[in-house]
Design goal:
With 335 residues, the protein is mainly β. 8% of the residues lie in helices and 36% in strands. It has helices at residues 7-15, 31-37, 71-80, and strands at residues 65-67, 85-90, 114-119, 122-127, 138-143, 149-154, 159-163, 167-172, 175-180, 183-187, 193-197, 206-209, 215-219, 228-229, 233-243, 246-255, 261-262, 265-268, 276-281, 284-286, 291-294, 301-302, 307-315.
Length: 335
């Protein structure tokens, strides 16, 4: 199997974060209600940004540094599962080793943690162990909004999730299942996993890692392909017809909220290195992978239960492979 060259993927990740519309909900306009649901600040400042990039460690707007999958890491993936690794993510190592010369320095409050924003409204506070004198431990705490979560990914070491409140949908060992708090989930080393908040309030997931470095690999597989949730809505990507180097596809968006929506948007990223949009109708396209499709004046309003559809033509470099079906994100989508 040939190692993917993630040049286009890295360029997309480093140039701009995926844009998410808040149409149809008030998450972005009601921080007081959100704050009452979370143990952590819901609108913290991301610790690092592109302005902090170095030649060795370019930094994305998410606050992370993305790099290619090395041949050694690729071989490790192939020994443990059948999914394709796309990109490696770390927190840029821009810090000085700690001097723990007083008792107070052994206390780590949220303001001393690194804050990252891997995608959408997913904010994570990370206590990266090597920044605080730990030899074999790091801890993360998420602010996971309803319908949000993490894509399929792996860690070299084992991980535990500790959740005291909420309902979370997991994908592990090829199966999707929902766990209601309180609970602890054990995630063995190099085990592909993803999660999604299927409740109606913020979930704070405490991740415990047996390493003093924050690192993970993103895999090319949609863990929750149905893209549905009765609390929010539904976004679906359907291949209508396919030929050697291209296909026509249709994206449908259903408003399953209780309120009318005036203006919608959907986002996606092709991670196979070759699929690209060549034409679009009934929506306005922004970006060049990642893409954002926005409503037009005549189809911007969606009443509860109403569905809007738009179409696209896409191209691919390898006619022997099927067109990739990407994950869809947006305020009316759940991935």
């Amino acid at each position: 199997m040939q190692l993917l060259k993630p040049v286009a993927i890295l360029a997309g990740l480093l140039s701009a974060p995926l844009a998410f519309s808040h149409a149809g909900n008030d998450w972005g306009n009601n921080p007081v209600d959100l704050q009452s649901q979370s143990f952590l600040p819901v609108n913290p400042t991301i610790t690092y940004g592109p302005q902090d990039s170095t030649e060795q460690f370019p930094i994305a707007p998410s606050g992370e540094s993305y790099g290619p999958i090395t041949p050694e890491r690729f071989a490790l993936h192939m020994q443990n599962h059948d999914y394709f690794p796309v990109v490696n993510a770390i927190i840029p190592p821009l810090f000085e080793a700690p001097v723990l010369d007083s008792a107070e320095k052994f206390v780590i409050t949220p303001d001393k943690m690194v804050v990252i924003n891997p995608g959408g409204e997913e904010i994570i506070h990370v206590m990266e162990g090597k920044r605080h004198g730990f030899q074999n431990m790091s801890i993360s705490i998420t602010n996971t909004l309803p319908g949000r979560g993490a894509p399929l990914h792996t860690h070299v070491g084992e991980e535990a999730h500790v959740v005291l409140k909420g309902s979370v949908r997991y994908f592990m060992k090829g199966k999707s299942f929902v766990v209601n708090a309180p609970y602890i989930v054990h995630i063995p080393p190099m085990t592909p996993h993803a999660f999604q908040n299927v409740g109606t309030s913020i979930v704070n997931i405490v991740g415990v890692f047996g390493s003093n470095q924050w690192e993970y690999d993103i895999l090319d597989f949609p863990p929750f392909p149905d893209n549905t949730n009765s609390n929010l809505g539904s976004c679906k990507y359907k291949v209508l017809n396919e030929w050697g180097n291209g296909a026509n596809v249709e994206i449908s968006i259903t408003n399953k909220t209780a309120a009318a929506v005036d203006g919608w948007a959907v986002n996606w990223l092709y991670t196979d290195g070759s699929t690209r949009v060549t034409n679009i109708w009934n929506a306005t396209l922004v970006g060049k992978n990642p893409y954002v499709a926005k409503s037009q004046a005549w189809n911007s309003k969606l009443n509860p239960g109403q569905t809007v559809k738009f179409g696209m033509s896409v191209s691919k470099a390898d006619p022997s492979k099927p067109i990739q079906v990407p994950l869809l994100e947006g305020s009316l989508c759940v991935n």
